[in-house]
Amino acid sequence: xxxxxxxxxxxxxxxxxxxxxxxxxxxxxxxxxxxxxxxxxxxxxxxxxxxxxxxxxxxxxxxxxxxxxxxxxxxxxxxxxxxxxxxxxxxxxxxxxxxxxxxxxxxxxxxxxxxxxxxxxxxxxxxxxxxxxxxxxxxxxxxxxxxxxxxxxxxxxxxxxxxxxxxxxxxxxxxxxxxxxxxxxxxxxxxxxxxxxxxxxxxxxxxxxxxxxxxxxxxxxxxxxxxxxxxxxxxxxxxxxx
Length: 242
Ligand code: FES
Known about the structure:
Strand content: 25-35%
Structural class: alpha+beta
Order of helices and strands: EEEHEEEEEEEEEE
CATH architecture of the domain at 108-237: 3-layer Sandwich
Shape: rod-shaped
Oligomer: single chain
Number of helices: 1
Strand order of the largest sheet: 4-13-12-7-6-5
Bound molecules: FE2/S2 (inorganic) cluster
CATH class of the domain at 108-237: Mainly Beta
């Protein structure tokens, strides 16, 4: 066991022992050489190329640590934004297909009892729901072999033409084949009975119908989000009223 500290010298940074500083009188602690760089541990110092290599390694290690930190930050940011976007998109998707509290077209519309047309009267337009309320007598709504007869009751007919989507008005004074009063599309002339049965024109089917529920106070709830494609059985889809 030799007294003293190890010190690296030369090209290879070889260690040599350096004598320990003389113990100062009075028992005070020894002083390390303040000008030496690359000190690795107490009592061992590096000089020359060895010290530079140690400093470079330390710098590389610190640089690597900095890069890892940035990479982790980027990864966390990416997944954070990805999760946020996915959650938002999923929420919007579900909200779209799960409408709550919709009160206009696409939701449930309440029609007061006073707005319900009498049996056999002209169909009444319900603007907010984009449909006509038609109150058919038993056997109404067919014409010249078109449509199948049904019972007395109410029909909610979507006013969108099944041909190209024009809005179909009820024309109370329009005469056609000996009958006055038809739904008549202004775009290409498709013509429908009071029950929405197509009797003329390019429309591919009768007018579409909506679900009706009769409430205890005589009002109606029409579900404009529940639309059924029109068919020859439209007059049989009536809802009994009164
Ligand atoms: S859009 Fe109604 S007949 Fe063409």
